[in-house]
Amino acid sequence: MSASSAAPYGFYGDDFTGATDTLAHLARAGLRTLLFLAPPTSMRLDSVGPLDAIGMAGAARAMPPAAIADELTRVGACFAALGVRVMHYKVCSTFDSAPHTGNIATAIATLRRHFANPFVPIVGGQPGLLRYCAFGQLFAAAGSDTRDVHRIDRHPTMSRHPVTPMNEADLRMHLERQGMRDVALVDWRAYALPFAEVDAMVDARLSAGASAILFDALRDDDLATIGRLIDERSRCAPMLAVGASSVAQAWCAAATSDAATSDALHADAGSQALGRAQGPVFALAGSLSPLTAAQIEAAHSYWKIELYPRGRDSDTLRFDAAPIVDMLREGRHVLAFTRRAQNQNDASRAQTAHATAALLRDVVRAARPRRIGIAGGDTSSHAAQALDAWGLSYRAPLTTGVTVCRLHADEPSLNGTEIMFKGGQMGGTDVLERLISG
Question: How far is CA 202 from each of CA 117, 212, 229, 237, rounded to the nearest angstrom?
Fold first, then answer.
């Protein structure tokens, strides 16, 4: 990798929606940040100029352990070659994962081979998104109601996730079930202590054999102490850090950048509000969450199309793009969405995700919409891979936890397209309407 592309902070998002959230936090903090859709070549890195943070968007959250190990072996080697000080493995703020799918313990074991610092911080929760960790227990709001907070194993949606239901609130136990033992805890009471005492607390836990250290997070202010620990200890040896975008928030609270302004690629990324769409908007919803269902119901400005498959096996399953393309060409906003099928298993869900991604590719090639919205973490991961683009930069916030990005592609008609990747639990009920109005 080119030395000119070296950046102190690197991150890999285990799905696309989470990766774009981290991109937004870093960009809003003034760091020149680019999210790549595949490991970048030296030529690509040289072409974008100096960066303060480099990200890669992946799909490890939906992978089995063997595929995670294979994927992150390449990713870890790439980031190590780039010389990053902090390698952030970005997980969902609800930590939803399981031994068989999205195994976080496997990801940590794989990436540690490239980042040997014994200090592996795991930041629990993301207070700004109403995710909280107290005494190692994870809590999350249901939707955007700040009063409706549940322990994660009693959360009305995440405890019933169709692939990775969260049935354990203690994140140490959750990770142990995935194969990671001896995770120590620094709870929220430590943040009132002098920093030297917290630093000594970390040393004591490492000396006692901790494989990683979980940090509570109840307030955004808690992240400053965690960030200082990451910043100072990463100066001794490159380290792995694990958690939601709260890891990036912690880093930004402690670290300083020698880049005061963004280059042309990111010019004014944080200062320009998102205006009204100048053409028809295409939105694609594959999330099965109740919140996404409410967002679809509230999307009154769209022509809505429920997607029905035209084939029933893995070779023929597809959705018809023609009516969507016709409506977009007529200047109409279109929202296409899937419904949960009865008795749908993991294989059929994967087939549906691939068919949805193929639909997006066909629509974009034929209609060339300049603003796109994707709802659903797994849907976003597959959809982004289907587009002929190589990177994303921050464009503007849409609402809390939801970011609009700018696509970077070699194809001129695709380059600069504005795109929203939204997790199923993110955004208010009017988020799809906001995608039109700005």
Answer: 13, 10, 9, 16
